[in-house]
Amino acid sequence: MIYKTSPPTIGMLYCGDLGFSLTELFLKEGYRVVTTDKHRSPATAKRARDSNAEIQKDIADVVSISDIVISLVAPEASVSVAREFVSLGKQIVNGCTFIDANSIGPGQVSEINEIFRHANLSWVDATIHGGAKRIGELGVMYVSGVNAVAISELIRPIMRVSVLSENPGVASAMKQSIAGFSKSLNALFLQSALLAQNHGFLNSFVDEFRQFYPEIFSAISRMLPTFSQHVRRRIVELNNIEQLANENQSLCTLMTAAKDFFAANAEIFESTQMDSDLSSPEKIEQIVKSLAIQ
């Protein structure tokens, strides 16, 4: 793949939590990163400025000078960003590879495929597994599409990359398969912890769980506190997993139960304010006690 600049220029759409973290990693490796804060929330606009990326007037300016653009938006906005990219016209998008790095379901994959097929353009399906705060240390990007190998070479200096297929959609399916386990694990832990809370020994349960399953507890400590901010997105992701399973009649009863559990308690998660000074066990106990009150 021939790039316009050396090193390549990365267009970041947009600087949410994950976009901000990726921007920092790309800049650290010497890449040029450009973005825009047009039509973005005040929080995203501030992160864009704080990231030290170059702020452009609009998406057209970002795409025209970028070798690749990475779409990182809420899953429900992924199709509209892909459509906006293609609508800029070949004169602008030629030489720029579009990467959708959102947690999208099979329906959205099909829509994006159709958008690019009609425009006679290719795109790369990518998903990132690992929390934004430790993405460089723990994260992995799964990629699929005709340009997946070339994109992997560009991404590899900042994080681990796994090339899965030349067919877009495989990377999204991989992320959903792994995410189905992690989200269901959190639901299972919470229900066990609620049982302990209702019998008056939550503190002892958390201590014993940490002793017997230290690696599982470490993973839960990273993931569970984020549900207070992102529970609605987790529900959407679990729904996408359910759709993926239904496509080929795969069994997903546990993941469906996890989705129903989080949906039934979404308002409780959202109303539970996480104190940054609390330790991970204290944050977990706070969530459990909030659920137990209801």
* Rg value: 20 Å
Task: Please indicate the percent range of residues in DSSP E strands (runs of 2 or more).
Answer: 5-15%
Give me the CATH architecture of the largest domain, please.
Answer: 3-Layer(aba) Sandwich
Measured between the Cα atoms of the first and last residue, the distance is 56 Å
Give the beta-strand count: 8
> Helix count, per DSSP?
15
- Name the CATH superfamily classification of the largest domain: NAD(P)-binding Rossmann-like Domain
Question: What are the low-pLDDT stretches, counting only 5+ consecutive residues below 50?
Answer: none
Question: How many domains, as an integer?
Answer: 2
Please characterize this protein's 3D structure.
With 294 residues, this protein is of the alpha/beta class. It folds into two domains: 9-167, Rossmann fold, CATH 3.40.50.720; 174-293, N-(1-d-carboxylethyl)-l-norvaline Dehydrogenase, domain 2, CATH 1.10.1040. It is built from 15 helices and eight strands. It has an eight-stranded mixed sheet with strand order 3-2-1-4-5-6-7-8, sandwiched between helices. Strand 1, helix 1 (17-28) and strand 2 form a beta-alpha-beta unit. Helix 4 packs parallel to helix 6, helix 9 (170-198) crosses helix 13 (253-264) and helix 9 packs across helix 15. The longest helix has 29 residues, at 170-198. The mean pLDDT is 93.
